[in-house]
Amino acid sequence: MAAFLFNGAEEYSYKMLVEYINQHKKYFPLYKTHDIFAYFENLIKAIVTNRPLVLLDSDLNPSEVAGVDESQVNIAVQLPDYHFDDINSVVAALQKSSSEITIFTSGTTGQPKKVVHSIETLTRSVHLGDRYKGQVWAYAYNPTHMAGLQVFFQAFENQNTLVNVFNMQRSDVYQKIAQYQITHISATPTFYRLLLPFEESYPMVQRVTLGGEKSDNHLYENIKKIFPKAKINNVYASTEAGSLFAAKGDCFQIPEKICEKFTVVDDELLIHKSLLGKSDCFKFDGDYYHSGDLIEWVNKEEGIFKFKSRKNELVNVGGYKVNPGEVEDAINAIEGVRQSLVYGKANSILGNVLIAEVHLEDGAEVTDIEIRKTLRKQLQDFKIPRKIKFVEAFLLTRTGKLKRS
To answer: What are the structural domains, with CATH classification, of the chain?
Structure first.
């Protein structure tokens, strides 16, 4: 039987997981822990016994989110008697569970918001079958958020192996890929950018998936060099709706079977309420939810589009609406740049001016003058940052994405 989880020096088998589930018939409805195996054990026990669960980050301060009673965190509740003969029976119970799982948005641009999901919506994108057996997944997401849950369910329902690499340094990630012969990686573009520069390629990786942030062709080209035999795809998922679209490159296509569940108003993608979890924070326009994601059609008749930016990330510069992502793409494509972050700073004359923070690859020598010279060939003057700052690192959210607030 395949290993369930490698976490540092610790190895956990599926047999061990079943034994823990059978032996410890209590669970924590609100649970905070740094122990990822204990977290998964608690998650599975709640689901297979049809119990509600609130997922909390291990370092969460309850004041950050509404509706969390700190006195109830890590208080165990007795479960009714049960017994599972093997991992197959655990998976079967999970697949028909009526549990409701509460998760929180990542807080990329504001306070995290609470969303309640059924197991059906959380596992909507899971693929099952013999072709998915024997996969080894790099676990590169925070386990308490949507993307981490989706990777977990995909691996767990196929009894694959997970290798925890979340928040690891570049050299450690590469060491884990080689040691455990990792075949699948799903992570944010920020995660992949932090793998640069690289010294060798890893042909054992079969599939690379990007999600959670806008990516760019420069990053795709580097990923192809690091993982030369991997198929690369992009996924669109949100805490509010789970996984909705997949793409090769940066063009997404709305699946025909759910095409009537979407509409676009003033370039913003709106999602029908039937695809969402439940939340008091949702605001609807009729039956549709404003996703906050701005898109541009590539082929409207076939439902093919590209994401442009988040609506609340546009910066007003002298009356022009600037998409920081467009400027970041241009900066990130410059040789020696690992990643950039562009944002607006209040200005009494222009409303805002653009500031760019730039993180260079190790050993790279790139000046602000060189960056501006390159940008002038590609962008209008009002899109060129007024100030360029070189930084050693960026603040990230708990989900591993750039923190833009």
So the answer is: 3-233 (3.40.50.12780), 250-311 (no CATH), 314-390 (3.30.300.30)
